[in-house]
Amino acid sequence: MVSGVSDPGRLLPVLARYKGKVAATLLLSAVASLLALGPWVILAVLVGAVEAGTLTGSLAMILSGAAAGIVLLRFAALAGGSALAHLVAFDMLRDLRFALLGRLEVAPMARVIGEGRGALVKIIRDDVERLERLVAHAIPDLVAALVPGLFSVVLLAVLDWRFALIAVAPLVGAAILVRVFLLTPANTALAEQLGALQERVSARLIEFVRGQPVLRMIGSPWGRTAESAAPDRLIGEVHAFEWAWARKGLCPHGLSQVLLGGTTFLAVGLGLWAVQEGGATLRDYVLLICLAPALVTPLEKVQHTLHEIMEMGPGIRRIAEVLGWAGPPYEEPLRRAVACAHPVRFEAVSCSIDGHPVLKGLSFTLPAEGLTAIVGASGAGKTTVVRILARLLDPDGGRVRVADADLADRRPDDWYAFAIFAFQGTFLSRDTVADNLRVARPEASDDDLRRALWAACCLDVIDALPDGLETRLGGDGVTLSGGQSQRLCLARALLRDAPLLVLDEATSHADPVLERALLERLRTYRAGRATVFVTHRLPSAAVADHILVLEAGTLRGQGTHAHLLEACPAYRRLSDARRGAAA
Fold first, then answer.
1. Alpha helix locations (H) across 160-217?
2. pLDDT of 431-442, one tens digit each?
3. Which of 276, 299, 323 is the last residue in one of the domains?
4. Measured between alpha carbons, how far apart are the two ends of the chain, in Å?
5. Which of 21, 218, 281, 400 is deepest in the core (most CB within 10 A)?
6. Which residue range or ranges hold the ABC transmembrane type-1 domain (predicted)?
7. Which residue range(s) make up the domain with 155?
8. With a threshold of 0.70, does the pTM exceed it?
């Protein structure tokens, strides 16, 4: 979940461009709500005419026609206001999502990855979507509830101050109860805690559903460990939390409803007393008993709307947090400095993940050209090295230098012009093979594509497809195997022709013979440039010009395959383990 200081005011630049349209929607909502009082006012006028003995057939027809016209005008105001409010809301959602995506493009990659894909998707999809309720419904409804209430109180006060007091007294009491006991900072904090707990339940339930095949195979759909039983426990926690929260509001909420329900009885009884005592007419009394109860529903709507806005608060703060993301303040463009090959130096780099040290003062140099392999047992820190190079992770200590500058000082787009990465996982869009490749270099010719595919040992696969480079992938198109997808992604990375290519198990689905053939083609295709690959296969590493041996986050040796077999005990242990596994 996004954390840190967030200022909801960061939404204002995105929303300010619609302030005129928002004002128009609020005006239409106010007009529609005031027109709803029109028939009651006309009824009071009719009663006053009867009381004065001046009601005629023509006057009754005119007033009835006016009431019908008011109803039609209210319908037009409601329809126009609702249409405009939704149009504004949808435009705002679009602009907010564009603004959030723009922040993701410039924020440090480590921060984006660190927040988690699920949390960011929830913000861009769900939190933004909830703002439609705020703009198209909650705020217009709040205005529609408050304006006629204020108008009614003012009108009653003009007619007879006692009528205004009769109508307002229960409402004030109910409002004080709601404000003191329900709309409090403590309840706002409880709403945030409940939201966080519900997110934990959602995440765990997703894991539970995905893990069903394994959980069932071990003998129980819920599993036998505390971790696998966590969905059950968390659901129970949500239930207990919600019930405890509800109990706190039962008495204040119930008492406020009693007060609101007493408005009608007060209006009927005390209003008749005011008429009898003098100073109030039957016309005024009719207005009182019509308008006083009508104040109750708006107040209930205000309570509901304020509660809804309070629930939206955490999502608004999460949106504001992402809108506040920005890249570091780079002082100089560095694209020229990385346009050609340079050695990359790790200088005493340390890194911890979830509090556990993974790299411990790691120092080495990646040559500016040739094949460099990074080997080591699982957990040695190989992938962490690649993640730091890819700017997906920031080191805790030390630094990474290239072209005599700290990697942290480089603009991300400058760095990704210098270094291109291919990982074990793949990403291919539901488009043609050619379009998927040209993501890396839009101006590439078909010959360029075919050369990159040849270097990735994938040209024969693509030529065998129904439409070759124009074959559509995924969906209704062709589905590639895991290894074919990996090699196609590698071809896309090769197409960038960057000075540094880094592969993190990017050929894990290939068999050893194919992987060695691929590395030999890379040596030819990328002559004069640097290629770094992580592998757990020592025969593949043996073709490298330079090998780095990692063990428990430290460098145990470096050199050629033959040199390391003779001089590096850690490398010999890896070799012995491979031969033992093969035997």
1. 161-181, 185-210, 212-217
2. 888 988 888 888
3. 323
4. 48
5. 400
6. 23-311
7. 8-323
8. no
